[in-house]
Amino acid sequence: MTESEAVSEHARLEGVLRGHDTRYFEDDAPEISDGEYDALKQRYLAIEARFPALVTAASLSRRVGAAPSAKFGKVRHRVAMLSLDNAFDESDVDDFLARIRRFLDMPADLPLNMTAEPKIDGLSCSLRYEKGRLVVAATRGDGAEGENVTANVATIATVPAMLAGNYPDVIEVRGEIYMRHADFAALNQQQGEKGDKIFANPRNAAAGSLRQLDPAITAARPLSFFAYSWGDHGSLPGDTQFDVVQAFASWGFAINPLMRRCASRDEMLDVYRAIERDRARLGYDIDGVVYKVDDLALQRQLGFVSRSPRWAIAHKFSAEKAATILRAIDIQVGRTGALTPVAKLEPVTVGGVVVANATLHNEDEIKRKDVRIGDTVVIQRAGDVIPQIVSVDLARRPADSVPFAFPETCPCPLKTAIVREAVGSGGSGAIKRCSGELACPFQRVEHLKHFCSRRAFDIEGFGDKLIERFFADGRVTTPAEIFTLSARDAASVSPLREEEGLGDLSVRNLFAAIEARREIAFERFLYALGIRHVGETTAKVVARHFGSFAAFRAAAMAEHAVASLSQIDGIGPIVAEAISAFFHQPANILMVDDLLRVVDVAEAQKPASVDGAPLAGQVIVFTGELVAFSRDEARAKAERLGAKVTDSVSKKTTLVVAGPGAGSKLKKAQDLGIAILDEAGWLNVVKDHAGLSG
């Protein structure tokens, strides 16, 4: 990286990181995972390390948190609330210990006691007590100045209003406000029933609950507090980190029971591994283990760097993996009848999202991994990928566990027979499928969900829960009935607006959203039909080839449909067979005919000649956050310009458009030497070719 490139990239990263800091610390609404944020921050710090002239007093490397919110009064911290440096692997821990010994000129054979404790994923808070009474509570804010949240903190049961025992005249006890998993789940359920905001994870829920202008709202939220540090003080009740924290417990605070003293590097890592292994059993979120020099005299000698103490570090867990407990295995039936086993997990936060379910793919996967109910399992989540079980901790398997028995009939009320189909190359895998097709109520309701989904008819407000409710009470059992719902409701003796949870405005908005979808693009209509193997890409290929749905339907119902459809570029024999089979089923034909009586299918735009298209031959991948347009809009524009858009980076990729937060795809593109543009660069490409693509 040249100096000019470093200046540009440093400024870009600073803008991105400041935006994410605001969304995390002030809005309690982060848009990327902790792991993605850490990757951006590490790149930013690496640039500063290589080009020290870029470091200024305003650099993010000198900053802690974000400015306090204007909604609350401000509190100036008498002792700054700093953040911790991070260690991401064992070598980082070794470097941390080596730096301490060098600074103290301490020989390697001289004991260095450390403490190790879970790093709570919550909201840092400082509680000032004078003569034992709580007088001020403040958030960390930017480290120097925080928000005055005294009235709200006073409602938290684990924060004593008055200290017990022997305490100094003045002491600022610091710790973390957090929310337990069970309380988080109950709160989100209440929020959903009231139609209020659903929180993404317990940390967001805790921060949002603490920052309420009405303390009564905070009082109604199940918040907890762990004490683990201190700020301004008169005297301390001990000479070590461990002893002072233990004294907090005698004053009435909750302290973490997993805090340990460690006499060596190996003991520190043993505590780390044990806490990581038992993470799911804690009932609250942690994202690492904090190590601190135990001797307070050594802490004072070590002091601080710009924004963090030299004597402490946070050893972070992998952002995308966590261990948890498999509580049950449910069998779910999809719209095509495929039976998918779903692992029901003890909730755990992975990559910034609370995970309670993970895919087990199929019966063969369960047998191969020997996954059993009650097992401690390691789950993995990367980006938007559905969480999956990657391994089982056999050493922690319950003594009474038994292999999981896959059902032989569909779990639907009809108990339809299950058929086993070979899948994969050479039939290397297999999937079990309910043979009931649309007679199976599970398949019918899943088909309705697919029909209304964002990439199909995209009916706003008609979500999965409402679809299940309307299907159960018989209001909507086929796609066409969605578009007759308003007329039937007007003549009903029990209209929707009289049902619990469905007010007059909600019903009007739903009917308006349905009306707005009476005309739909050909490719969306085809995708919405839910034909096996016909995804969005295939639907676009079909629409562009035939132009009208009528022409396509005639070809699909023709005598030699499979052979003719297979000749279309982008449609193989498996897809052709699925399309032909769909249009030779009388029930499906009836469903389509009913739909065509209530919706209009627009003809597809004929694409410009690929040979003359501005981006013909380009293979483009979009990754990261896009601001000026949605991912769908970006894809559509690229395809109109003649490019092919894919979701993964490979040697065939010719261009990657990377927005803020881009991760593994951007790195792979850099490794392969693929051309990379930011959003502004892509907009210039689109602008240069405006009007050329029709």
Question: Could you write a compact summary of the structure shown?
Answer:
With 694 residues, this protein is of the alpha+beta class. It has 25 helices and 24 strands.
What is the CATH third-level topology name of the largest domain?
Answer: D-amino Acid Aminotransferase, Chain A, domain 1
Total beta strands: 24
Radius of gyration from the alpha-carbon trace, in angstroms: 29 Å
Estimate percent helicity: 25-40%
The class by helix and strand makeup works out as alpha+beta
The low-confidence parts are none
Overall outline: globular
- For the record, the count of structural domains works out to 6
Characterize the biggest β-sheet: 5 strands, mixed
Q: Could you give the distance between the termini?
A: 40 Å
Number of helices: 25
| Spatial sequence of strands, sheet with the most strands | 2-11-10-3-9
Percent of residues in β-strands? 15-25%
CATH architecture of the largest domain: 2-Layer Sandwich
pLDDT averaged residue by residue: 86
CATH superfamily of the largest domain: DNA ligase/mRNA capping enzyme
- The CATH top-level class label of the largest domain: Alpha Beta
Descriptors for this entry?
single chain, 694 residues, alpha+beta, Helix Hairpins, D-amino Acid Aminotransferase, Chain A, domain 1, OB fold (Dihydrolipoamide Acetyltransferase, E2P), 6 domains, five-stranded mixed beta sheet, five-stranded antiparallel beta sheet, 20% strand
Task: Note down, in words, how this protein is organized.
The chain has a five-stranded mixed β-sheet. A five-stranded antiparallel β-sheet has the order 14-13-12-15-16. It starts with a helix and ends in a 6-residue tail after the last helix. It has six domains: 3-63, Helix hairpin bin (Helix Hairpins); 85-316, D-amino Acid Aminotransferase, Chain A, domain 1 (2-Layer Sandwich), CATH 3.30.470; 330-433, Nucleic acid-binding proteins (OB fold (Dihydrolipoamide Acetyltransferase, E2P), Beta Barrel); 436-517, 5' to 3' exonuclease, C-terminal subdomain (DNA polymerase, domain 1), CATH 1.10.150.20; 521-602, DNA polymerase, domain 1 (Orthogonal Bundle), CATH 1.10.150.20; 610-688, BRCT domain (Rossmann fold), CATH 3.40.50. Helix 17 packs across helix 18. The model has no long low-confidence stretch (mean pLDDT 86). Helix 24 (664-672) links the parallel strand 23 (655-658) and strand 24 (675-677). It contains 25 helices and 24 strands. By secondary structure, the protein is an alpha+beta fold. The protein is globular, with a radius of gyration of 29 Å.
